[in-house]
Amino acid sequence: MSDEPxxxxxxxxxxxxxxxxxxxxxxxxxxxxxxxxxxFNRPRQESHWFCFEHKDDxxxxx
Length: 62
Ligand SMILES: [Zn+2]
Prior knowledge:
The mean pLDDT is 80. Strand 1 and strand 2 form a beta hairpin. The protein has two helices and two strands, in the order αββα. The chain has helices spanning 16-23, 55-58, and strands at residues 38-40, 48-50. By secondary structure, the protein is of the alpha+beta class. The protein has a domain at 26-61. Strands 1-2 form a two-stranded antiparallel ribbon. It is elongated. The structure holds zinc ion (ZN). Zinc ion binds next to loops.
């Protein structure tokens, strides 16, 4: 019997950069660091991210 750790199949774990893209946004509202599920951006401009509570703040970036 082998006691080598089981190797995860390739593609089972997201690359670090991919994880950051998905999970790396926190709300930009001052004092709020919740996960931001709502992104706002205009073409050729930086994105701004807000949580559900503060997503109205993002409207001014549109
Ligand atoms: Zn927020």
